[in-house]
Design a protein that fits this description.
The protein has helices at about 10-15, 40-50, 120-125, 125-135, 160-165, 180-190, 200-210, 220-225, 230, 255-260, 275-290, 305-315; strands spanning about 1-5, 15-20, 30-40, 65-75, 85-90, 105, 110-115, 145-150, 170-175, 190-195, 215-220, 235-240, 260-265, 295-300, 320-325. The strands form 3 sheets. Strands 3, 4, 5, 6, 7, 14 and 15 form a 7-stranded mixed sheet that branches. A 6-stranded parallel sheet has the order 10-9-8-11-12-13, sandwiched between helices. The protein is an alpha/beta fold. The chain has 2 domains: about 1-125 and about 295-325, Quinone Oxidoreductase, Chain A, domain 1 (Alpha-Beta Complex); about 130-270, Medium-chain alcohol dehydrogenases, catalytic domain (Quinone Oxidoreductase, Chain A, domain 1). It starts with a strand and ends with a strand.
């Protein structure tokens, strides 16, 4: 099969190769999926650079997200799953072989039925972006009646988070860095969008909330935004964090302690089984009703996977990045 892989850490163009490698066979309880579209996420380039922890392997085929069709099943998996359209989660989490290949074998539970009305490119956006957004929006229960600040409201996760929060009855304020991104966040359900490049965030939040502040912040980049929390959150408010550009960012603890800020962190790879079942059921319902917007910022062929990674690393693309598998 054709696959992209790397055998050492480094820059995308230096270490990523696209070549023929042996196709996997499904083990007991596993299915093999003929991948049509692979989903790329920031974790993928961080792991490729050796920054994020996902396991060290002699050869790594990247990407945890993807969608395709089950073409083989292992022992214990019903043959009725053959030919099933599916989307995938955690394909490369602590495993060497992900979805940037023509085939991937993984536990059957990690291949979720994809409704016929949803394209494979949509399925490739669900595993990390949509599930992360769902977990962030509902971390402390449905935010009905609350005011939420969603950083990066047009990003891969933020765009979904705005939708989940707004649908649940929250008032959503989002940040965005351009008029185009602001328009996308507004279309997703944000009542107001703050241009973080041109506006003072704390002043804008104060104006929008009558000086009260927001109840929750959904955070994509703790290191960049931590200093603003005391000025943006209500006393006792919560910051729900799922990412940071700087893993060793200093935190303004004095201001946080005085303000009574709660900090909650999670990584979607470790979502508990009960929560994942609930999230999958809600996503399936939204997909079948075509009630969820998807924002794919760029598509690349597998041969240009290095460009896909660079687009994420340089933030040249806003939204989801997907890779078409030949």
């Amino acid at each position: 099969m054709i696959a992209a892989f790397y055998e050492r850490f480094g820059e995308a163009r230096e270490v990523l190769r696209v070549e023929e490698v042996p196709a996997p066979l499904p083990g007991a309880g596993e299915v093999r999926v003929r991948v049509h579209v692979s989903g790329a996420n920031p974790t993928d380039f961080k792991m490729r650079r050796g920054v994020a922890r996902g396991g060290v392997f002699a050869r790594t085929i990247p990407h945890s997200d993807g969608a395709g069709i089950i073409d083989r099943v292992g022992a214990g998996v019903p043959e009725s799953r053959l030919g099933e359209r599916v989307w995938l989660w955690n394909a490369q989490w602590r495993r060497p072989f992900g979805t940037a290949a023509q085939y991937v074998a993984l536990p059957g539970a990690q291949a979720v039925p994809l409704p016929e009305n949803a394209g494979f490119e949509v399925g490739a956006c669900l595993g990390i972006p949509a599930l992360t957004a769902w977990r962030a929006a509902f971390f402390d229960g449905a935010p009905r009646g609350e005011t939420l600040l969603v950083h990066g409201g047009a990003g891969a996760v933020g765009h979904y988070a705005v939708q989940f929060a707004a649908r649940s009855g929250a008032r959503v304020i989002a940040t965005a860095g351009s008029p185009e991104k602001a328009e996308a966040a507004s279309a997703a359900g944000a009542e107001a969008v703050i241009d973080h490049r041109r506006e003072d965030l704390a002043a804008a939040i104060a104006a929008l909330t009558g000086g009260a502040g927001v109840d929750r912040i959904l955070e994509v980049n703790l290191g960049a935004n931590a200093a603003s929390y005391a000025a943006c959150l209500k006393p006792g408010g919560t910051a729900i964090v799922y990412g940071s550009d700087d893993w060793t960012a200093p935190l303004p603890m004095s201001a946080w302690l005085a303000h009574g800020i709660e900090l909650k962190l999670f990584i979607i790879y470790n979502l508990s089984e009960p929560l994942r079942r609930r999230a999958l059921a809600e996503l399936d319902d939204l997909l079948r009703r075509e009630a969820l917007q998807h924002r794919i910022g760029a598509r690349f062929p597998l041969a240009e996977i290095a460009l896909a990674h660079e687009a994420m690393e340089t933030r040249a693309v806003s939204g989801n990045v997907v890779v078409d598998i030949p």
